[in-house]
Amino acid sequence: MANVLKKAVSQLIDKLSTPSHVVAIRAWQPATLYEVDVHLPTTAMEKWTTIQRLKCKVAEFEYRDYTPATWNAEERICTLYIEAGHDGAGSRWVQRLKKGDKIPLGVAHAAQVPTREGKILCLGDGTAIGHFLGMKQLTDRKRFPMEVVIILPEIYQLPSSLVANNPEFEFIFNPHGNSLETLEQWAVSKELSAYTSVYLAGHTPLVKSLRKKLKAIPDVRATFQAHGFWS
Predict the structure, then answer these.
(1) Are 177 and 155 in contact (CB under 8 A)?
(2) Residues 199 and 123 sit within 8 Å (Cβ to Cβ)
(3) CA–CA separation, 84 vs 98, rounded Å?
């Protein structure tokens, strides 16, 4: 019965999927993080006002949600950042992906951007890169200055364009350390009362634990938004 239901849901998603295909793929070195440019010819990206999530079919009856990190509404091309450092259907899929491949996908859900003006603190792992870049594209830097810290499990050769275009992003290489402890230590070294919004994203247990720890700090009055992407 479960397989029948799974098949029915899969067929429904496929029917509602948006036309799309891969324009380009770039792999960070070591090749466990990919930037995938996707053309969505029928998607009105100029209407995006929230951080989007796209549900991509990565295998038979298998779907993964990825966030458009940046997009060109005129050309209708967006870029997805996909971490493939662990063995899973999404990792295997992106490693096989080629230019020209069609991707069955549809809009999954969206996350709200801040409404209270002031400084935004963003903390997460490699799966949160797209989420925070998407927020940056949707918010006014003067009204919503951002400070972003990303923990990465590998010592990557970061793309020079990513570093140059996003000075508010700090990348911490943490191949053998505890990501939760590293992010917590970084956060408590700051004056958290200076932020009006705190966004946490990435590994679900990390996000839950970090939210609990930071909210318990005295004088923290920021609005918290937590988004767990994988467990």
Answers:
(1) no
(2) yes
(3) 15
Q: Is residue 184 very low, low, confident or very high in pLDDT (cuts 50, 70, 90)? A: very high
Distance CA 19, CA 40 (A): 6
What are the pLDDT digits (tens) for 19-69? 899 999 999 998 899 999 999 999 999 999 999 999 999 998 899 999 999
Query: CB 45: neighbour CB atoms within 10 A?
Result: 16
pTM (whole model) above 0.70: yes
48: CB partners within 8 A, 6+ apart: 68, 71, 73, 138
83-119 CB burial, b ≥16 within 10 A, e <16? bbbeeeebbebbeebeeeeebbbbebeebebbeeeee
Cα 185 from Cα 189, distance rounded (Å):
6
AA letter at 89: A
**Residue that is written with structure tokens 């070195």 in the block:** 29
Rg from Cα positions in the chain: 18
Given a contact cutoff of 8 angstroms between Cβ atoms, the answer to whether 56 and 63 are in contact is yes
Q: Which of 75, 72, 69, 34 is nearest to 54 (CA)?
A: 69
- What angle do helix axes 179-188 and 204-215 make, rounded to 10 degrees? 30
Both tokens assigned to 165: 């275009």
The pair of three-digit structure tokens given for residue 31, joined into one six-digit string: 């090749």
Name the band, by pLDDT with cuts 50, 70 and 90, for residue 213. Answer: very high
Please report which residue ranges of the chain form alpha helices under DSSP H: 2-15, 89-96, 129-138, 160-165, 179-188, 204-215
